[in-house]
Fold:
Amino acid sequence: MGGRTRTVATTASAFALLVLLWELVKLVVPDDGVVVGGVRILPRTDDASMPHVSTVIAKLGQPEVAGAADARTVGAAVAQSALYTLGLALGGLVLGGVLGVVLALVMLRFRLAERAMLPYIVASQTVPLIAIAPLVAGWGGKIAIMGWAWQPWASVMVIASYLAFFPIAVGALRGLAGPSRASVELFTSLAAGWWTTLRRLRLPAAVPAIIPAVRLAAAAAVVGAIVAEISTGTRGGIGRLIIEYAQTATGDPSQLYAAILGAAVLGLVAAGLVSLVDLALWRYRGAIG
Amino acid sequence: MSGLASEKSARSAVELTGVDKRFGDVHALAEIELTLDDGEFVSLIGPSGCGKSTLLRVVADLEQPTEGTVRVGGKPARQARLDQDYGIAFQQSGLLEWRTVAENVELPLHVHGVGKAERRARAAELLELVGLADFAGSRPGQLSGGMQQRVAIARALAPQPKLLLMDEPFGALDEMTRERMQAELLRIARESGAAVLFVTHSIPEAVVLSDRVVVMTPRPGRITEIVTGRRPGRADLEPDDVEDVRETAAFFTAVTAVREALRKGHG
Amino acid sequence: MTGPSLATAAPRRGGGVLAPVALGVLVLVVWHVVVVAFAVPAFLLPTPLAIAQQFVAQFPVILSTSAVTGGNALVGLVAGFLIGLVLAVLAASSRLIAELTTPVVLAASAIPIVALAPVFTIMFGSTTEIARQLVVTVVVIVPVFVSSARGLRAVAPVHGDLMTSLAATPWQRARFVRLPGAVPYVLTGLRLAAPAAVIASVVAEYFGGLQNGLGSRITSAAANTAYARAWAFVVASIVLGLLFHLGGTLVERLVTRGRPA
Structure:
């Protein structure tokens, strides 16, 4: 137990140190920052640029629109928006994840498919796919699938799923193809078909490889959802909220900082959910090939 | 009398007195008494887990004994290590793959601040000695297992130690290479005049290389018996050639003696 | 699984250029035919030919905007690499530092770092590229730190024993074994970080600020319903990402040649 307490203590201290560092920079660096050759290499540290950590925390309890009686608090606005975005990101993660696993299975079954598609899938992880976000956003309000008009939030989920799809396809293939020849031959000798081998050998063995891929995909889905919300102007999400607050941020940016804090927490929650799934699958953690 | 005895121990390459080693509940070594003279070649042999590698590591000061004393060249083991009085060759050659063969041999000298020209010269000399002069610029990855072990031996000899410690260095090699390496090692040991403490699994190997073979029991490791080896080139043993030694009656007798001692230790 | 080359998704079977190239050509042809035959509107998907035409027509602009986006990515890559490496060395030398930095880096790998772009813009001004370069720097620090820290930890027991037998000081251990041994891992971190730098650079442009990079061109072209042109800029950003990936791979191969995997 001593080890775990130590980990909690050091984690808490690490973040406390970051807060201290923030305040230290505010204290030491001049209000207007340091400009060298027309480029500001040290930031502005006045309250209008770098609010105190306490100011940002306090802002969470204040109403969004000053003076309005029934306006929700900043904290509530941030939390609601973050949850909305989380929903879209998770939706995209699940959608992209399922498609990714399906594709991995296809590539597993048909070598030709693997040879043809894998280079593209691997390459896609090195390029900014998110660049197409504004273009997917353009679908909003212009197309209809079977009578259902394309909503902006659908673009967000599509983009998130697109970004989650690729790492999961790669990770799933690596995991499913992982078991050693000897293990596969064991199953063959037991007259197990392709599907049985899949269920009993490959899928459990793939868990240690898929989980890190899902973690990566979750982070990508979150970023994708936020950026997509900005490109599509989807109301209700935290991406849109950040842009809104950024526009009203001159003079008092603590609201903006609060929203960004919310986005950070969103990312951590998504990662935490993946870790919970990882814990639930503890049996398959140390699967041997 | 005692003056003569202490004079002798001051000359010993290695002296172990009452050495005992425990790792928590595991009793690895018990009541070890052993002395190696200068230039002597001694093998440690025993079943797996008998502590022979632990004993070697204790001499190297990579482990410290729970009880007892270890003296190397008359000094405490720790001092001998700090003074670089011994060279060690491990089971895996432990070569650094980002250095060339020559640079690997130079490593002990490099670590101790010997100048580049002197290092180069010494490495060249040693590679000549182990027969790998042509591979000075190669990378370890390009060499076979046997060749890598030869480099490791050359490296161990770099600081001109009076004692060589070897932990089953030929364990991973096939029989033919192994026999060749044994002949090489004997030649090298003779030319450098170093004492050798050699850990092995193989009875014939122990007998052919050593002046004395130390047989150990299973855990906790104790010394059962010390059998005279058949090391070629010794004045009182004939013939000189390693190959011929393996075919003498005396060799077979010694091998049988070691086998008996191992069986006795097991019982 | 081996350390440094873990991330290269080398297929366990397969290889060869014919199949992917054939697939690529097939997709392009089908794409073109479908768009023309079904009169697919441009806002959904332009033809590959139209995109190629726009790419050629916009080439000078593509070059200048790629230089800006690529430049930011490069600055952030170098800065992030150096900082990440220094942090990893510090973490390797002190358990306390390691325990403090690990949760921060772990958190950083989960949170959407590009969301910090507006914050940096306020702090550093919206008239320079510093804010975006800072975003890229933070994004790059994560893989570089993780890889390098792993490399610095990975000392083979036999090498550890070797250094003990040579009575080496901690600094000598670092100089002769740990640092050279960590080089492949550090370069893997660089290889992983390079394309991530481009991605971060492009995405950071979506959060406002100067409008002189690839990302801003994509948004403005889309806003002006010049879809083929927007796609041309998307292609340019893909090419930029691939170039950085190739660069990172090349550096890794060059420095670790001669070593076994």
Q: What stands out?
A: Chain C touches chain A through 65 residues (CB under 8 Å). Chain C is about 75% helix and 0% strand. Chain C has one domain: 48-255.
